[in-house]
Amino acid sequence: MKEKVRVAGGQGFWGDLLTAPVEQVRGGEIDYLMLDYLAEVTMSILQKQRARDPRAGYARDFVGLMREILPDCVARGIKVTANAGGVNVEGCAEAVREVAKELGLSGKFKIGIVTGDDILGRLDEFLEKGVAITNMDTGEPLSAIRDRVQSANVYLGARPLVEALDRGAQIVIGGRLTDTGLTLAPLMHEFGWTFDDWDRIAAGTIAGHIIECGAQCSGGNCQYDWRSIPDLANIGFPIVEAAPGGEFVVTKHENTGGRVNIQSIKEQLLYEMGDPHSYITPDVIADFTTINLAADGDNRVRVSGIKGHPNTDFYKVSIAYSAGWKAVGTLVYAYPDAYEKAQAADRILRARLEKLGLKFDVTLTEFVGVSATHGHLAGEPSPDIPEVQLRFGVRGPNKADVERFTKELAPLILTGPPAVTGFAGGRPKVEEIMAYFPALIPKTLIEPKVSVIEA
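and the corresponding structure tokens:
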């Protein structure tokens, strides 16, 4: 058993800094690279992509990244855990195999494939069997929105990842794997933690929670003393150095920007925490009130004392469904009387939309530069505001009405208040709205599948 395992966070979301995982691999010693690509809305986007092209449905950026770092990973034995597979895990794995072939690395490592999270095709089966799938927030039954569902994915935990690693996989690719499981699984695999070792599993889960958002725990998006955080242009992404007993240190590579300290870790711990006594994952219920943080040197924070409780009998399901259409457009009004002009334009636009008889569920106005961020707490604006952006959005069930709205913003330039200085982005784009339907489903109904193939 190793005395220490280093898991590097390289991706906080799909669209994060492209150079970060490369620098994690090449900037110093690590054992694992954890890559978190998925958010709730991402699954529906990927499902639509695959509907148009059966070869699509996964994070293509991951394949390009593998082309760059795979030689390093194979040479140094660095293992990768990623949920980049989206709704086409096999397609993603095959794309990585093609990259390995291009690089002359075929047969030099194994790829683990984790599936079973995508239950879109099983929803009708569950409904017919009387399985209660209800919205955790509203109590609404799945049947109420079934005809509009675009994606349905179970949050799988560390167990299938551990199995893939135990079977020799160096690159493990899954779909809707939990963010925390991507870090927990390597620790369970390396240290031999059992699935009822609740305190250690809770520790590995919290380690994953701390680094799941990338540099958000190493100085990025950090409120405390943000002006003094050094060299954010070269920010270092976080690394967990874990020990067999469950303690771990959060740090980053030397000679990188950003900052790891108790405050930066605390801010990330609060992210999506909910009840601090009961942070529920498929693997464990972690108690955040038991976390001890201590400075352990420059850019090093030691985390210890974590307690956990047995997991539940349910998986969480992320369901996305179509909920109408929206469009948002902007106009910028200049001094003098910028705010007054923007308010007048808002009134004019609303009157014209009413005259046209367009129906919307929501019509929203924001005055950026005045009150868009803080609302009424911003207080009375100064009459000397140099410019105000009018941001106007509509949402409704009728796509035609939303499309008609998009043609009413530009005419304000010549038929409304003076001094429009920018028509940002041109005519607003009509977008389909994806709503979120969180639910629970018994674990006994879900069968994660693991396969390990030669690259």
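(Above: one complete record from the training split.) The chain has twelve helices and 19 strands.
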